[in-house]
Structures are given as structure tokens and as C-alpha cells.
Amino acid sequence: MGPVEYWKGGRWHGITSRHCRSALAILLLARGRIVTREQFIDSMWDDEPPSTAAVIVRGAITKLRRWLPDGHRRIATRDPGYQLQLEENELDADLFLSLVEAARRALTEGNPHLARELAEQAMAMRHGPVLAGVCAGDALTAASIHLDEYATLAEQVRTQAMLGCGQARWSIPDLRRNLALCPIDEKSAELLMNALIEVGKPAEALVEFDRIRSYLAQDLGVDPGPELRNLHTRVLNHYLNAASTGE
Fold first, then answer.
1. If 0-12 CB within 10 Å is exposed, 13-18 middle and 19+ buried, where does residue 2 land?
2. What are phi and psi of 83, to 5 degrees?
3. Could you count the other beta carbons within 10 Å of the beta carbon of residue 207?
4. Could you tell me the pTM of the whole model?
5. Strand 5-8 relative to strand 11-14: parallel, antiparallel, unpaired?
6. How many percent of the chain have pLDDT more than 90?
7. Are the C-beta atoms of 156 and 103 separated by less than 8 Å?
């Protein structure tokens, strides 16, 4: 799962035309439903389509029919637009989403080993930015964000599963990397604090809380959410109890 590609002759092929990449992405995301010509135009250009938009869409469909395996049969003209014939389990995005949901379900059901395995299978499917190089219309942007959110969820499920399997130490580098990319990611901060506590570094967990609290205040003008605040309180209470007992 990544850039829009197609499988032909035993290997993956990229698509050089941005309009063709976008048209194929729109057809794939429709999952076998008819896409009208107006929907193509709205998805690709939003409120400012060029005067030649309809011609560009027809040209993209013609090229895709020529490039894709059995393209003339797979992309059918269905008034008032076009329809892509998909085989069962052919769309990798659907398999990716189902793996992430299965991983989350396994974690909820108390099976962290299975959850980690499924999450890592989902993560292995990703090989680059999702829907890279397509037109920046709202529909395609929203689809890309949705899939990116599930990619983040897969990483979080794997990390939670590692904590459940007693492998907190190995999750810490990935969590630090995630927070370097997105310093206000509260879920990653919560997981990192839990991992640090698990490996006997509660002081570092407190430092992590102070770090994200500062970023949230500076960037968004808000305080950490209840999960982080409650975790912070539990760590402080641990120190207070230890001090009162002389440990």
C-alpha cells in the first residue's frame, strides 16, 4: 500500500501521468461502484476544474484501459460514468484495513501476541506515501488521510501488543521516532510513558509528560488529555508513596 500502481507481467508498474494515477485511485476507492464523470472532476479538482476537465478524464480512462491487464473489460462504461471490475480481495487497501481491525480486536480480546503479528503484517504492506502523486482534490486527500490514520493505528496497536508481551524495551525507539515526527501525538506519548515505566524509568516518563505538555501548550494552547494526566498522577503518586515509606 503506497503509490498507485498496478500488477502486470509479474511485477508492479508505476503510472507516470498524474491524471491517470488519480483516475485509477478514484475507481479503486469506489470499490466497484459506478463513478460519474462529475465525481471524477470533483475528486480531482474540487472547485476549480479546467475547462478541459472532461476531456482529461476521458483520456485518462483510455490510457488506463490500454495499460491495465484486461483493461478494456475491467474498466466498463456505465452511464453516467465508469466502473472498475474488482476481484475479491484484490484491493490492498481493504486487506490492510481488515488486518488493522483484526489486530485491534485481538488486542481488545487479550491476545497481544496475535495482535502484534497482525499489526506487523499490516505495516509490512506499506511501501511509501499513500496515494502519492495524485491530484489534491478533497476526496482523494480525505482517503489518503484515512489510510494514514490506520497506518498510525497499526503502529500503536503493535506497540500496545509489545507492552502486553513484556517487550516494552523494544518499543521505545519507535515511539521516540514517532514523537520526533509528531511531537503532539498524545497516544504515542502515553505509550512511551508506559514503556518507560515498564522498564523501570519513571523519571524519564515524567520528563516525557513535561515535553508533550509544553508542545501542546505552545502549538495548540491546550493541556494534555485525561489519559496522560491520569498516568502522570499515577507516576507522581508512586514517588510520593516511595518517599513516605523510605524506599
1. middle
2. -140, 130
3. 12
4. 0.76
5. antiparallel
6. 47
7. no
Q: Is the pLDDT of residue 190 over 80?
A: yes
Which run of H or E residues covers position 185?
Answer: none
pLDDT in tens, 125-175: 887 777 777 876 778 888 888 888 888 889 889 998 998 888 888 889 888
Which amino acid makes up residue 186? Answer: E
119 with 157: CB under 8 angstroms?
A: yes
Instruction: List residues bridging with 5 in a β-sheet.
Output: 14
pLDDT band of residue 243 (cuts 50, 70, 90) is: low
Which residue type, as a one-letter code, is found at position 238? H
Q: What is the mean pLDDT of residues 201-215?
A: 92
Residue 103 confidence (pLDDT): 96
CB 205 within 8 A of CB 235: yes
Is the sign of the CA dihedral 187, 188, 189, 190 positive or negative?
A: positive
Strands (E), the chain: 5-8, 11-14, 35-36, 75-78, 81-84
Enter the C-alpha cell of residue 14: 508505476
